[in-house]
Amino acid sequence: MASLSVSEAEAPSLDIEKEPETPYEPRYIDVGINLTDMMYQGFYRGRKVHEADLDNVISRGQAIGCKMLMVTGSDYKHSIEAVDLASKYPGFIFATVGVHPCCATALVTSGGGVPNLRSALKPVEELVLRGKTQGTVTAFGEIGLDYDRFALSDQDSQLRVFEEQLRIAERVDLPLFLHSRAAEEDFNRLLFAANLPRKGLVHSFTGTLEEMKTLVEAGYDIGINGCSLKTEENLAVVKEIPLERLQIETDGPWCEIRGTHASAKYLKSMPAYLAEGVPKDVKKERFQLGMRVKGRNEPCAIAGVAWVISQVKGCSFEEVCESSWDNSMKMFRFDEAALLQEQWRASNLELIVEEGHGQNE
Predict the structure, then answer these.
(1) Are strands 28-33 and 66-71 parallel, antiparallel or unpaired?
(2) How far apart are CA 218 and CA 159, in angstroms?
(3) Most buried in the list 98, 167, 204, 251, measured by CB within 10 Å?
């Protein structure tokens, strides 16, 4: 598969590790997956190319060993959709709620400018608090700064929206799901100045060794996906991330491991059983239900991320999977959230039954 192995045209013939007699049965939590993106509905750049296959994408993730998914909310609309998915897949899907830095200018503009920013973000805060109570929301984000994408959102808007959302974070008491790209100085300045009750995860990390160490020392975890494994410099940073501060993600439909990435060479030795049952990928124009789409990342690729990390760090695959599992469970408290979801569903069912009896009397 494109996200687990290099294509046949690119990869030389290498011996693949044989399945051990008693193989470790991996379990993953994909803490960063954009399942609300329209690619999973078959749309690319606004054009419908194939039928929706979101349910298949989710099923493939489950089949590979994903026990939980945390779906990213990038703005108010997508946050609502993420929460809806969490309600549809209780105990398996959880949501983040927030406004991505690339959506900051749109929020400021639609909300009537900077003076009205607090009012513009009020629905976001209300959604976070409601989802926290119901167990569907386990993190506040994706929030942060992205200075590589001023074409999408200007610097001042990003700074204003990030700062205001950090104020919300002080009130909602949830771990943060953070984005930092080429903005280390401003990102750290605002983040470290906030009076946060919880820390969080800096996801899709591509920063320097020094940046990573600063964040880890400040109590933040580091999220790794294919984009975090692109260059030799990236791999050198990943090698030094303490296992107790590491979490894994795919960030699909983006951030796959590509054949041109420095990490691709490690995928050639990945045991075949770790990708057992994962179908081949096809170009989107040749889509068939049940196949993966070439170039579109999804949760079933997380095995490749974990395998590469183990090879780079020189530790066992099991260590990477179990450490990242423990770190994600500790930070985002998925067990507690799943219990809240169950209680919320039970109370709503009782209410529906009571209303039904009342109407029949």
Answers:
(1) parallel
(2) 21
(3) 98
- What's the CA dihedral at 123, 249, 158, 82 to 10 degrees? -20
Nearest Cα to Cα of residue 111 among 157, 66, 152: 157
pLDDT tens for the chain, residues 1 to 361:
444 543 333 343 344 455 556 789 999 999 999 999 999 999 999 999 999 999 999 999 999 999 999 999 999 999 999 999 999 999 999 999 999 999 999 999 998 898 999 999 999 999 999 999 999 999 999 999 999 999 999 999 999 999 999 999 999 999 999 999 999 999 999 999 999 999 999 999 999 999 999 999 999 999 999 999 999 999 999 999 999 999 999 999 999 999 999 999 999 999 999 999 899 999 999 999 999 999 999 999 999 999 999 999 999 999 999 999 999 999 999 999 999 999 998 888 765 555 555 555 5
CA distance 297 to 249: 11
Query: Is 102 inside any structural domain?
Result: yes
By the 8 A CB rule, do 198 and 221 touch? no
Give a yes or no: residue 337 inside a domain: yes
For the chain, the helix, strand and coil percentages under 3-state DSSP, each to the nearest 5: 50, 15, 35
Instruction: Yes or no: say if 190 and 101 are a contact pair by the CB < 8 Å rule.
Output: no
Q: Does the global pTM surpass 0.85?
A: yes
Q: Where are the alpha helices (DSSP H) in 276-333?
A: 302-313, 317-332
Sequential DSSP letters for 184-222: HHHHHHHHHHS--SS-EEE-S----HHHHHHHHHTT-EE
Residue 56 lies in domain? 28-342
The helices-and-strands tally (H runs, E runs) of the chain is: 13, 12
Cα angle 333-336-340, degrees, rounded to a multiple of 5 = 135
Asked if the structure places residue 159 within a domain, the reply is yes
Cβ count within 10 A of residue 87: 17
Residue 94 phi/psi, 5-degree rounding, is: -130, 165
CATH value at residue 269 = 3.20.20.140
User: What is the tally of structural domains in the chain?
Assistant: 1
Asked if residue 223 is part of any domain, the answer here is yes
